[in-house]
Specification:
Chain lengths: ~450, ~230
Amino acid sequence: MIRLVKTSSFKLAAVYAAVTLFAFLTLFVTAYLITTRALDRQIRFGIQAEYESLISAAKSGPSSGLIKEISERVRLPAGTAFFYFLSDESGRKLAGNLNDHHPTNGWQTIPISEVAGGPSISANADDHRLTALGGYLPDRSFLLVGDDSYRLYDAQEAIMESFALASGLVLALSILPGMIMGQTFLRRIDSINITTQAIVKGQLKERIPLTGHNDELDELSRNVNRMLDSNQSLMESLRQVSSSIAHDLRTPLSRLRQNLEEVRFSASRPAELQSAIDQAIVESETLLSTFSALLRISQVESKSRRSGFKVVYLSGIFEKIVEAYGPVIEETGKTLNSNIATGVSFVGDEELLTQLLANLVENAIKHTPTGAEISVSLQETDVGLFGCVADNGIGIPEVEHKRVFERFYRLDRSRTTSGSGLGLSLVGAIADLHAISISLQDNRPGLRVILGFPRPPPD
Amino acid sequence: MHLLLIEDDQRTADFILRGLKEHGHVTDHALSGSDGLYLATTQNYDALIVDRMVPEIDGLTIVKTLRASANHVPVLFLTTMASIDDRVEGLESGGDDYLVKPFAFAELLARLGAIMRRPPLNDVKTSLEVADLKMDLLKREVKRVGKRIDLQPQEFKLLEYMLRNQGRVVTRTMLLENVWEFHFDPQTSVVETHMSRLRAKVDRGFDRDLIQTVRGAGYCIRNDKAG
């Protein structure tokens, strides 16, 4: 219950209830005062008129005329709205339907039970009050005209009752939904807590159930689930990477060790030793370059280089790569076609963009047979800025398109070629850093890599 | 040459000191940044080899301090692989070149040679030459024995860099960084291919080869009368 009261929806409901109640209170007090005053004035106005009409009737004759007038009014078959009391100068009752009076001049309020008597007063007269006007007449007799102000009290009571009723209703209507909402809220929070605790305990596949209401809690849960998905895949790739590192580095290391051991026991001539040492140096350099490639990828992935982004001449980078690799492609018996739009700039890291393109071209060189055609292009079109590196080699099966960007991922058939299996991972990381989209397509035959440069450039 | 090595790792220092001694250099060694800075300000060295991460005063601060006091001694920075991106920072602080550990000794030697004989910035040359080869930097023209040689832009840049460092060994990495501005190691033979094309144009058909391969180190262009 304390938890429920502490929920924000309950608190909100309570605040609403309080505000509404306060507004009601103000409204009712105002209505009460205005109604009371209006009714009171109306009653007094009636009494005064009656009093004056009696006085003027009395003036037309002796005081016995007044007695007669009052007696007649009291005797009216339907009863009278007013109460009268007439006494002589010694206080003896001369006429009227009241038994007693307070001989006070002017306006007064008297409990009816004190002055009334006889059947003309209703049974529940106890709480009735008489609003009355009293005054001494010139002959020292005393006249009192009064009216039961039950109408006033009725009105006041009605207002009070409706206030009480309305307040109760408001309280119920605002607190109850607050409680229900709070309860629902608590249930859903509990379900989120249960899920997160399960994840903390290692059940990484757990996800927060959605209610399907598409409200803010669902949205929150969906985002948390999405975060969990990406964390899980990151952990998965981390696991994959560390086992790949262990696997991929063990092979050259054991080869290195084997060579050294062999030389240690069998080499006799200095020339043999030297060549074995040279071989060992080459092996260790391969290992070192794998490490530096890994470091470079993680550095690019850390996104710290974004702070050094500048406007770079993209056309120039493409031209430089074509000029640098053109001869290499020709020497390997392949042809290079290029079609590079001039005057294109982009915001990014020149060094990394150069490496991205170089890696793609080298990848094309390495994985195509003699006689293949490699093409490099940069095109600015209405739909965007695109770079493309394509070849007509054997290509990559579509099912593997996504996986080639994973660290150490190598197609089975390229296990035998040189390379660390990190070139395309770095391409992926650099593209990601620059928000460049990469799509791999079947060039029929061969592979086509399309780079979609974001326009306008990222922040 | 009188050199100063500021390096706190004794094994790396021994490796460098031994190599430099074999090549006829006299090298002082400081194990900490403060000792190094003291030596650098009190002695007259031909070049400094400074590790980025040394105790007390780091390499970057040492070089900044020297440059602030108008000391323009050539500086070669050493750094570990983990901080390859510090290169720009190192050069901006006043370092002349940057070498990532681990490195081949030949690379260190070639880079030291390059920074020690780097001409002052205001020394603008309009032509470069070695033996009977002449390069006109304004006309972008190369002639050997008066015969014009047509070069591709990157071949021209390659030859220009070699000529500016003539008589000294330039390594593959130095060429990649300075001619192509590649700060990574290509998996294909970019340097070798361009170099063999350049050689075909510059040396083929002439009585002697100007460009030579230095085994295990790199290339060198020189007026080698004996060759």
